[in-house]
Amino acid sequence: MLDKTSSNKVSVTFSDGTKAEFQSSPCTPILDDALAAGLPIMSQCKSGSCGTCVASLVTGLAPPIVGLAGCLLDSELSEGRRLLCSSHADSDCEFSLDYPSSLGAAAPKLANVFVDGVEWVAEDVVRLTTELADEDWMDFFPGQYMRVGIPDTNIIRSYSVSSCPEKLPKLEFLIKVVPNGRFSDYLAREVKTDDVLSLEGPFGSFQLREDHKRAKHILVAGGTGLAPIISMLDSIRTQPGTRPPILLSFGCRSEKSLFCEDILELREAWMSNLETRISLTRPSEEWVGRIGNPLSAISAEDISEDSVAYVCGSSRLVTFAVEDLVAKGLDETRIFSEKFLAE
User: Fold this and answer.
1) Beta-bridge mates of residue 94
2) Which helix (H) or strand (E) holds 207?
3) Which of 6, 28, 70, 179 sits at a 20 to 30 Å CA gap from 326?
């Protein structure tokens, strides 16, 4: 039986080298004690479903809380990955975080946006274009996501921003429309120009790393996982100085689900340092492009010693991508990812 009066020392190290320590009870989620101590730990759902508070256990015992569902796979848990909101410290522990302390210190904000338009870009994907209300502002890093709310309801969903910060006050999102999804039904049947949506954010540590900005970039996206990748791509395009070589591998199910070909072609025309590869897993007989998932389009020859990878898509795709890229020679510490999770 756990001693509710005891506590253990927990230390965390951010990617910028900042270290912090706090005490955590075995009966309390580690995240709760970290936030109570004022640490800039990134979080959002606090229930284990979003994955924002993920950390790597370096030393110590920090098992997942029994009965609390989490979004990590068994393989990730065995590798030491932990969700701080759904783990407790059974001993002194040390964790590492893959984002700088400054990122977690920026508190999410609330804002309102007006709907400018909804465009169907594939049979099951829409581009939602919005604009911040005059009295509101919302900064973000390319790759981060927002919590978006339907007017006059309690329905809130998380979506990555597909536009780049330079386009503010405009914000764009690429959203997969799913059968019987409440937000999907709103976009398909109810949304009107000038509807007011609530916005909270930004969230997430998925962003371009400043210390790798000159390295070759391997960008991997599955489906609407392309949204934050486009934001990153456009941010790189606008940065001054020499731009890194970029390989973008994008995958969809079929021609009907394929989208943003025109945007990617335009980016290739604008950026001589960009190469785009598109793959389909279930194409028609008329398809003459690559067949397979986006990882099948990347070879070991595409990866250099100093390459850095950014991956976004389903949990299955992200897990496979990490394993595949490591097998092809990429250092796992140079792979950054974001999973899209069903809500």
Assistant:
1) 11, 59
2) none
3) 70
Is pLDDT above 90 for 291? yes
Domains and CATH numbers, the chain: 8-103 (3.10.20.30), 108-203 (2.40.30.10), 210-340 (3.40.50.80)
Tokens of 89: 């410290």
pLDDT for res 247: 98
Cβ(272)–Cβ(242) below 8 Å: no
Confidence of residue 231 (pLDDT cuts 50, 70, 90): very high
Between CA 259 and CA 225 the distance in angstroms is 12
Q: Is 257 exposed, middle or buried (0-12, 13-18, 19+ CB in 10 A)?
A: middle
Q: Side chain identity at 303, as an amino acid letter?
A: I
pTM > 0.90: no
Percentage of the chain beyond pLDDT 90 is: 73
Q: Which pairs with CB-CB distance under 8 Å and at least 24 residues apart come from 147-154?
A: 147/44, 147/199, 147/200, 147/201, 147/203, 148/173, 148/183, 148/197, 148/198, 148/199, 149/197, 149/198, 149/199, 149/200, 150/182, 150/183, 150/186, 150/197, 151/195, 151/196, 151/197, 151/198, 153/182
**Residue-level pLDDT at 6:** 78
Structure tokens at 74: 């068994």
Asked if residues 60 and 41 have their Cβ atoms less than 8 Å apart, the reply is: no
Helices (H), the chain: 30-36, 74-78, 101-105, 182-185, 226-238, 261-270, 315-327
